[in-house]
């Protein structure tokens, strides 16, 4: 007779077999050992020969085995099945159940992953700044401007920031937002003279935090801490550029005094109570700096702003621009003109050089005398290219490139083209250019740098990269990373190979900047055909080759050419982790890798490119919907099987991205498609360092042993007290002094208190082992008191000084009158007593 109960292999508790499944769900030892709650197979319960339940050491169970049966065929009308665990076949339905009950009871096997899903971070909607803020119920001026009182004007130097703007990234910000903010700063450096630096105690600074919505004040409010909110769904680079342009002093484009010449506001389509958002300013309130009206401005409302129905609230007087206004891709050319004029910029910080060879001076490049051939400035070559890359033959009598002919000369013939002398500032550079190879696969292009130092004033050549490959009938984009710290030239060396050539090597549209190069480039050709023939949804998706991040994670990008079924006529883009060679050595779930996908605007000048980009960050604690799986866990655990074009199978994890990456209208509005191809630039980088709280509090006072004065100390590394309405999620760091001693005469830096009792943004430091508040102060105000609870100002001091002066005057007057009366009485008394009064006696009597 079979036993009615058995022992649990984890806690050894005797449990009835009918309750064994439920016991494993609640057995703490079982869950501690395997890390997850057990869900036992929903099959008939039986026991093994010993009467105990059995299992093996795998990951998770199959769930309902009967639902995972694989039909093998039909014999005489009866289907047969294969066991999903041991792969034995030819079972009837009942025999399969008996087989699984007897052989595989409680066996834990991996759950077959569901079909990989795409997670749309935008919910299928291309939400603008004003849509986000409206959904949150924010009543801000013009939808995203915070006004402290009366409206402020950008006219006047007092509303400008210095060219280097101090900032704090508060702990409340999402990690993805922090990374995108830093990328936005890089765009400011590339295209303007405005720089950003972490706050080190400057009087005025911008505090970026995760508030409700996306908003900013206009200009430098001269208020010390000035808030700028990058809330949920605001972490797009165009949105961040927009809000920082507000902070730098710019209103919305359609509020210009001349806007009625260019757009019409349809007032009856505007939501009730929102009409003030469409006010315009006269020249005393705002200055458009003699720059033409800009339909393409990142500061312009979209046609749907604050509408009460489905009709547009703004109509462009030139109809072709109706779908252009409201773009959030990035700075327009006129945005940059206005910003550079307002701040008197004559050059950009990280931009170095650009050249499309349209002028005969070829941008100051020189031919070397150490070669046996030359680069030629041409507009076409019989073997290709037929046009340059800049204009693609669209402009008559223009369109040039540099060409090295490899159809003549012997093997090893070279032609060397050198740039003008360049002066680096940052120590790293990215060289971008287009190459057309119409020669032979053995022909090669070598990139060198000629560095000039005091030890080598004539320059020393350093090899950087060799580029070679099969000839193609199109221009190919290349990036080369440099790391030069002294003045230098970029050197292009063409080398003829051993094979037969009908053409040669051509280069065009060179850009050099002190930025980081993208890690990977995905080139999609015949893109117009894809647009015209691809269906909406997964059937119209194209997948990139596999790429690896610098940390070793394998990933892939999918592009929905015609969007999803719910959101057609858009480009959708998603990032997925895929199974790779390093998976066993990597951390899982994947922690804090930020993937950035950039659809390149192929404008020849990098400063005028308006590329469209989105960033996705791998949060290791992010769950997949209502399941217990982590989105960014190992692809072979949470992904589904896919196949590369060469037949190799791999696992692809869930895709995270947006179905509203870019509308087809905007896709055609710039140089995204060129030579019927698009380029997607990809970068995957570790941003875990942004988890740390930014050192951003006032410098403590440092007491020296050699003087009685105090001096500002080094910038501390503690958590800044957040502004009102924000919450700091990172605990304050503490400074350990273990293992270090202070030598006589060295400054002694106070440590920070574990708790901060100081009010009004005061900083608590330990002085002689006692907490002491360092109170904030401005030019005409300060806080004082044991906890910085009292505020003082110059005006109050003036009142006190005047009051004190009057009081002293009154007291002295009273004393003088009293003294005179007393003396008069005394002289009168002495006269009556016939006493003689001398001066000496008078002095003595007082």
TrEMBL record:
Coiled coil segments of this chain: none
Top EC class, one word: hydrolase
Compartment(s): Membrane
TM region(s), chain numbering: 799-823
Domain MAM stretches: 353-519
Span list, region Disordered: 699-748
The reaction(s) this protein catalyses: S-ubiquitinyl-[E2 ubiquitin-conjugating enzyme]-L-cysteine + [acceptor protein]-L-lysine = [E2 ubiquitin-conjugating enzyme]-L-cysteine + N(6)-ubiquitinyl-[acceptor protein]-L-lysine
Occurrences of domain EGF-like (ranges): 749-789
Pathway it works in: Protein modification; protein ubiquitination
Residue ranges occupied by any MATH domain in the UniProt entry: 517-684
Positions of the catalytic residues: 243
An annotated GO BP: proteolysis
Biased composition (Low complexity): 717-742
Any one GO CC term of the record: membrane
Swiss-Prot/TrEMBL keywords: Disulfide bond, EGF-like domain, Glycoprotein, Hydrolase, Membrane, Metal-binding, Metalloprotease, Protease, Signal, Transferase, Transmembrane, Transmembrane helix, Ubl conjugation pathway, Zinc, Zymogen
Organism domain of life: Eukaryota
Cofactor annotation comment: Binds 1 zinc ion per subunit.
Listed GO MF terms: metalloendopeptidase activity; ubiquitin protein ligase activity; zinc ion binding
Names of the cofactor(s): Zn(2+)
EC number: 3.4.24.-
Topology term for the membrane: Single-pass type I membrane protein
Domain C2HC RNF-type as annotated: residue spans: 8-27
Comp. bias regions, Polar residues: 699-711
Designated name of the protein: Metalloendopeptidase
